[in-house]
Amino acid sequence: MNQYMNTIKNYATKNVITILFLGLSIIFMIVSGMGGHLYATDIVNRVSRNLFLVLALIIPVSAGMGLNFSIVTGAMVAQAVIIAVTHFGQYYGHWIFLDHWGILTCAILVTPLAILVGYFVGSLFNRTKGQEMITGLILGFFAAAIYMFIFLQLVGGAIPMDNPILVLSQGVGIRTTIDLSGYLRYGLDDLWRVELPIMFIVFGVLLALYRVVTFIRAKADRVSLAQLIYSVVLALIAVGVGIGLTVTDSVYRTVQAPAATWLVIIAMCLFITFFQRTKLGQDMRSVGQDRHVAAVSGLAVNKIRVKAVIYSTVLAAWGHIIFLQNMGAFSTYGSYNQVGFYSVAAILIGGATVTKANIGHAILGVFLFHTLFIFAPSAGRQLFGDAQIGEYFRVFVVYGVIGFTLALYAWKTKMQGKQLLSKKDS
Amino acid sequence: MKKIIKNIVEVVSIPRLIIIAFFLFLCISAVFMELSIAELMSSSLVRICMNGILVLAILPSIVCGTGPNFGVSLGILCGLVGGLTAIEVGLFSYANLFTAMLFSIPLAVLVGYGYGLMLNKVKGSEMMFSMFMGWSAVSVMCIFWVVAPYNNPEMAWPIGRGVRVTTALRNIGLDQILNNFFSFKIGDITVPTGLILFFLLCCLLVWLFLRSKSGIAMHAAGDNPRFAEAAGIKVDKYRIVGSILSTILGAIGIIVYAQSFGFYQLYQAPHWMPLAAVAAILIGGASIKKASIANVIIGVILFQGTLVVGMPVFNLYTADMASMGEITRMLMQNGIILYALTQIGRGD
Hints:
Shape of chain A: globular
Structural class of chain A: mainly alpha
Low-confidence stretches of chain A: none
Largest sheet of chain A: 2 strands, antiparallel
Helix content of chain A: over 70%
Mean pLDDT of chain B: 87
Helix content of chain B: over 70%
Largest sheet of chain B: 2 strands, antiparallel
Number of helices of chain A: 16
Radius of gyration of chain A: 23 Å
Strand order of the largest sheet of chain A: 1-4
Distance between the termini of chain B: 24 Å
Strand content of chain B: under 5%
Oligomer: heterodimer
């Protein structure tokens, strides 16, 4: 019995933020008095919009570079390409610049640019080893200035562009908001939509299948048996809920989940899982564990670190395209700002740390983070009579979670160092 | 000759040379464009001195070894609370100014103490922690401004509750009160005597403190913590002292800033102030580990001078001068911080 208590205690101290957020979300959910249907529509939308971006954070963490705040540079590149493709769509009206083909064009065009930017960012990180996070953060602000210079001062002037819909009336500079409806909006999402209950059933089946396969591969040891049971129970619940909602013909059947986007996300999850088993992925992990040991054993540490940042930047650029096509309109000089903070906060809420992050953390984190975001304003109104307080609270949550995790991490490493020292002494 | 130039480049470093060259270029173009030099000089003087104390607030944190204080917004928030409380009490002009400082200093000591304790727990990642600490404090205070029990019509919303986004200081007699103290004119240049004197007084006090016994101990604690510990200096204690001093200066700095600006700016306004202050001291030649009063003064002159002179010059060059000023600020500010980060661990 005592042993179980200890395990629970251990689990709780390790996942204090996740548990806190689960509790907070439930409280907000009850207080806000918001309908389940509204919530379901919103959360499906938000999770499918954001998850890909958060996945971009995983690879640099495994390479020991911490939480990569510089994914905003990837987002900026994505915005630049989207502006260009929208411009061509309005100018030529050719099918390759519209709808899902337009999204594909964006994804193809953005890749070489993101690789280039990732290369520069990675090279800078190699000059500030040990300070990658703050460098990435400040670099994001620095890059924003360059981005603003290009799109406010050069476009229309030094870079000719003749498009009254996108360019400001003075002829120089891109407008502050860009509307994508009719061009790229829902380009990916609308490719294939599926009723939410059916998504539940498919997810349940996929989860169960995945676990059974890994169970057989791992030759049936105890850990994977526990995982198998856990997953099968989860899968059964998902399938049960899905079938139940379909049979009773509930309102949730009107929630249309963007299955195409989810296919892309699942493909990316599989890619990341596969990638971490390749030679490069393994090398990244050894660089992440100890840079000096990796260097001594003959790994090109700097090159591997640059590659990690390149992967992250490209994924972030693609993720931001998915994000914007779902938003449908975006602020030219604003929407990239939040990408770094929100993604990092989300993955931390899912239980990731500065040195450890996986796909599970990303999924759980995005889900909890957005649950809180959806409920915070109405909970604020109910509790304090002011929705604004809920909004401020969300901002606080983003910064607070990141600050708290960083502090916890720094404190733990310090304590470990002390323990090592005292062991040496005794 | 070549050697001298090489030495200068090494000491001043290329990013700072670029900024100095840019500043000189702006000044020369201002002369050639026949802009009003007197007006530029007057507004530069005001801008330099009103931002000076906020930049000075970064100094103790670098000296005591916690790195540039990206969380100086904690001090700024203390100053704002002090200022609003002084208005709420119903004081005017000088009485208001000094009461505001009097209210905010004990608050800043308390906050700075707690902040210093936390910084001691996260040794090694102070910069990142202080940045997010500052930002979360700003967002918590956003909630505070909404629920705060301030009812003075000067600052409360006429309907609903909470404090307005900006509080005008004209009716309280605080507007430019230091600037106008014994201010005089040389030709067309207005000299804000009180403001300059107050800034220099703060510099002098900090300078004196750094030369006192505890100041020297603090220096040692920041310079080489292990050595200082071996010499019997309590490193953690002096790091707390540095944080407290930094927070106090931040609080006084924002009050001086606000009286010159004419408004207390609340809610999101303090969000970006620490970055600008840190950038200024770095432009002045400080590094993440070393700084002096000279760095503060040179840095704030270069940084604010460039921004003030830049505005009208850009106006003639570009279609959109407001955004160009903002872009210049962001490039300078974040560029110099990035440069300073690349210099960590290069024996500088």
